[in-house]
C-alpha cells in the first residue's frame, strides 16, 4: 500500500497566483510538495489560478489554470467577519474543476484557508485532505475546522503543534511540517554579513521590532518581502530614520536565497501564532542562524543554541543580545537541521503517509 503510486489533485491557494507573493508561504509549500511527490513517483494534477507557474515540468504533472477573482485573505479581515465569496471568485471555480476530475483520482489536497473546501468535505464522495496553513484567524474558520476534526479527523494536517493548538481537535493533530527543495538553497560560509529580515510586509510580521534591533546595534537591516499592507509599510518607512532599512522587494527563490545566504543573522519577529515560518528554514538552508520570537512555529524550528536563538515575544533587548551572540552558532548546524527536517522529500514522505492513512481510515495513534 505504502509504495502504491497515488493520483492526487492539489488545489492551490485562491488568494493569488503561484509566484505573485500574495499567497505567502503557501505558494512555496505547494511548489515544493509537488516536486517532492513527483520524486516519490506519484501523479499530480495541480489546479491553480491563472498566472501560476512552476519552475519545473514532469510527465507526472499536469497543471490546470482557472480564471477568476482572488479571495480576500482572512489575515486582513476581522475575526468575527462572515465568509465572503466575491462575484466571479476563483475559489468555487477551482472546486467545480475538482468535482469534475475527482473520480479519476485517489485524493485531493486543499491548500486554501477557506470555508468552502472544508465544508465540501462533508458532501463529496472523494476524500479531501486539508493542510491548514494558519492559526485560528477567524471564528467561522475555527468552527469549521473543529467540526471537520470531529467528522473526518484524519483529513486535517497542520505544519506545527503550536499552530494546531489554536483549534479544538477531536484527536492528536497530524503534523507534517514543511519542506523545501535542497537544490534551490546554497550553503554560504560567510560569518560577517549584515542582519536580515524577510516576510510579507504586514502587521502580524512585526518588522518594526527588527528595525529597532538594527538601530540599537547601529546597523542596517536588509528586508525582503511582498508588500501586502501598503499603509503599514509606509508607516515603518516614516517612523524610522532613512537608510536603516535596505528594501529589497519580493524576489524569486533563486535570487532571494543568494542574498539571504550573505547574512550573518536572520531576525524573525512574529506577532501572531505563526503556523510555520518558511523564511526561517530558508535562511537556515543557506547556513544563516535565526533569532526568533518564541511564538508559534519558530519554537519548533529553532533548537536554542544549535541553529539559532529563541527570545521571549516582543523582547527587543533580548533580540539584540541574542543577535550579538550569533557567532556562537555554527552555520553548518543550520544547514544540517534543514536537510534532516525540512527537505521537500522528507515533507512529501510525511504527506504521503498522512494521505495513505487517511485513505485506509486506519490510523495508528503513533502517527
Ligand atoms: N519570499 C520570496 N521572496 C522574497 C521574500 C519572501 O519568495 O523576496 C517568500 C518566502 O520564500 C516564503 C514566503 O515568502 O515562502 C513567506 O512565507 P512565511 O511562511 O515566512 O510567511 P507567511 O507569508 O506564509 O505568513
Kindly describe this structure.
This protein is α/β, with parallel strands linked by helices and 367 residues long. The chain folds into 2 domains: 192 residues, 3-Layer(aba) Sandwich (Rossmann fold); 159 residues, Glycogen Phosphorylase B (Rossmann fold, 3-Layer(aba) Sandwich), CATH 3.40.50. 35% of the residues lie in helices and 15% in strands. The strands form 2 sheets. It has a 6-stranded parallel sheet with strand order 3-2-1-4-5-6, with helices on both faces. Helix 6 packs across helix 11. The chain is globular, with a radius of gyration of 20 Å. The chain starts with 6 loop residues before the first strand and ends in a 7-residue tail after the last helix. The relative contact order is 0.14. The structure holds uridine-5'-diphosphate. Uridine-5'-diphosphate binds next to helix 1, helix 8 and helix 9.
What are the key terms here?
alpha/beta; Rossmann fold; six-stranded parallel β-sheet; 13 helices; 12 strands; 35% helix; 15% strand; disordered C terminus; binds uridine-5'-diphosphate
